[in-house]
Design brief:
Length: 362
């Protein structure tokens, strides 16, 4: 271990006193650290924490997760979003169990060949699990480093990305990469926050170029957000006596493997009832009678907004087919809890279970 530079010494001293006590930090089980890192991508610690605890209680080892059906994993992930993370974790763990004797490999290149492990995750696992001198840049680290070194330019560009990785690698204290990465993550979460960083409390304030230049609120630089498209979707909730038609989305892609009341795009000027009749016929091969609206649900993804117009429909004729999906089935309302649902579809279920019909925004 070499001598620490002054900013790194101050950072690590701050981390020793103020670092967050998180359950996976005490654990030295590589698999537990892996699960925590996957959950923390795109998700705040407070939200991820109960999911992590339930997940590890249910599948405490790689072998147990590898043997679990994907449907169960998605059900456990329900509400956490970004479901590709769960699918990739499951796939990755199965590969490690099958081909590596349930041992994560101790080098970055081999880690990156595992499904779902990208540059950040490989760095995080290499430093936290194996103590290798590897940086791991997540959103928090990018922001802190962009300010610490006053890195200008579009934060999403490859050039800025490379400059940040270079700064992180140069700053990295040999033999202390795990603590260093976690200290910067915590600094970004608690002090160097996105809006109005708390520079007066910051352990590296005397080293911070953005603060010296008075530009800490302007960095990292962002390009203007593109306007995201907003789609209107007709969702016929088709009843055949006491059962309702549900479908599982294709395994890959948006909400892959999750269940839904299958629907389709509405046409301009079309009523929800007419759109539901048309979609049921065109996409599902069913003739239905459209009845009462159930709910209108607004939902935002990172790249688009959707409004679901759910309408109660009565089955009239036809055999259900759903070419876009892997499975369709008729299910009783009491059975719906067994399946993994995206948040917006779950709102429709709540109304079906007796909740109030309303416009729901998320
Ligand atoms: Fe962030 Fe302010 Fe600390 Fe600089 S001084 S790293 S801007 S909190």
């Amino acid at each position: 271990m070499g001598a620490l530079t002054p900013p790194v010494r101050r950072l690590l001293a701050w981390y020793a006193r103020h670092g967050r006590a998180l359950p996976w930090r005490g654990a030295r089980d590589p698999y537990h650290i892996w699960v925590s890192e996957v959950m923390l991508q795109q998700t705040q610690v407070d939200t991820a924490l109960p999911y992590y605890e339930r997940f590890i209680a249910r599948w405490p080892t790689m072998q147990s997760l590898a043997a679990a059906p994907l449907d169960d994993v998605l059900k456990m992930w329900e509400g956490l979003g970004y479901y590709a993370r769960a699918r990739n974790l499951h796939k990755g763990v199965q590969l490690v169990v099958r081909e590596m004797g349930a041992q994560l490999p101790g080098d970055v290149a081999a880690l990156r060949r595992i499904p779902g492990i990208g540059r950040y995750m490989a760095g995080a696992l290499a430093s936290l699990v194996f103590g290798l001198d590897e940086p791991a840049l997540d959103g928090n680290l990018r922001r802190v480093l962009a300010r610490l070194f006053a890195v200008r330019g579009d934060a999403k560009s490859a050039a800025v990305e490379e400059r940040l990785w270079t700064h992180a690698r140069a700053l990295l204290p040999r033999g202390r990469a795990g603590d260093f990465n976690q200290a910067l993550m915590d600094l970004g979460a608690r002090i160097c926050v996105p809006r109005r960083p708390r520079c007066l409390l910051c352990p590296v304030q005397t080293d911070c170029r953005a603060l010296a230049e008075g530009v800490q609120d302007e960095l990292p630089e962002k390009t203007a957000k593109k306007k995201v498209p907003h789609h209107q979707l007709a969702v016929p909730v088709v009843f055949k006596r006491e059962r309702v038609l549900i479908a599982q989305r294709p395994a890959d892609g948006l909400l892959g493997g999750m269940w839904e009341f299958p629907g389709g795009r509405m046409k301009r000027g079309e009523s929800a009832e007419a759109a539901c009749r048309r979609v049921a016929h065109a996409a599902l091969g069913l003739t239905v009678r459209a009845g009462e609206p159930i709910a209108t649900v607004d939902h935002a993804f990172s790249h688009m907004r959707v409004t679901l117009h759910a309408v109660r429909c009565e089955y009239a004729s036809g055999e259900p087919n759903a070419p876009e999906s892997e499975r369709v089935r008729w299910a009783r309302l009491s059975e719906l809890e067994r399946f993994a649902w995206p948040v917006a579809q779950r709102k429709i279920i709540e109304v079906l279970h007796g909740g109030r019909k309303k416009r729901i925004r998320e």
